[in-house]
Amino acid sequence: MARLAQTAGLTDVQSEILATVRQFVDKEVIPRAQELEHSDTYPADIVEGMKEMGLFGLTIPEEYGGLGESLLTYALVVEEIARGWMSVSGVINTHFIVAHMIKQHGTAEQKQHFLPRMATGEVRGSFSMSEPDLGSDVAAIKTRARKTDDGYVIDGSKMWLTNGGSSNLIALLVKTDEGAEKAHQNLTTFLIEKPEGFGEVAPGLTIPGKIDKMGYKGVDTTEAVFDGYKVGADKVLGEAPGKGFAYMMDGVEVGRVNVAARACGIAIRAFELAVEYAQQRKTFGKAIAEHQAIAFKLAEMATKVEAAHLMMVNAARLKDSGARNDVEAGMAKLIASEYCAEVTQDSFRIHGGYGYSKEYEIERLMREAPFLLIGEGTSEIQKTIISRGLLREYKSRS
Length: 398
Description:
By secondary structure, the chain is an alpha+beta fold. Helices cover 50% and strands 14% of the residues. The protein contains ten helices and ten strands.
């Protein structure tokens, strides 16, 4: 649809990138998404196509072989890809977060070692904070890195690694003994290089296998078990132990913009499917789009798509400007994920009984949309972030 989710003020380069990605999605992703998703097959050919377009290096600086584009460009690209199949956007999401963390906080040696190969997609990143017994309380992490004479030894279990098997680099948040009073100041981020695959991929590191999920299929989601895994001190991100929480939160902040973009992409696709079906399906002698109940529903869906897109764009532009955007990113993620679920369900209802059939694309979207309600922090966590930011800005002087 050309009318919805347009972005003002884009450069010619940004417009050309988005046009190329949309053509790729329409030609290579949408026609294959149903088959690959239903069989839970990794989209290897699609990933290769993204490598050829340079999407893995979209935001990596040109000096390291990337395109040097903004977070806004990346978010709009993600929106286009998620419109085709959210799992494909998941392949590059964690990669982008890890690249951002290295670009912003890595040492000169770490940047030179990782970023050129990340730009080509030779090195693909995943990141890990969650644990089997850990919810939103990141400071309660149990996985520990013990300092030794020649580095660290890591023990513990991590959970919900997107691209855990297909990546060969993990940004890993663990506990270290820094002696700080505040728990989050005893957390350190490591850059863990590993082979792709499942099982014991390196001495002391096991990727057990794919977690079977309701949706978000194709992309692999895994656990990671560390048992006496040895890593050098040079693999501490920024060579700064105890700062891992701040580095991860910076990554999650841009990740929230990404999740908002993914939610926008799914909502756009759900609306496209609904408005097309509503003009083809006839009841009582006319297209159901001509019935006021359906027409009003389409109007509400389109308005939600537009509102979510505008908030996502605003959050991305704030981050690009260097301004703090935790509140705006939280707002964008909150409204985009909630509206995505609502728009997708409305599209499902417009499809009637056919929406319950696996032959129709909306069935897949109905299983994908709920993931965005919890990814990169639940709606309740976003409300916590937003309210704290508002109270900080509007602090009472009485």
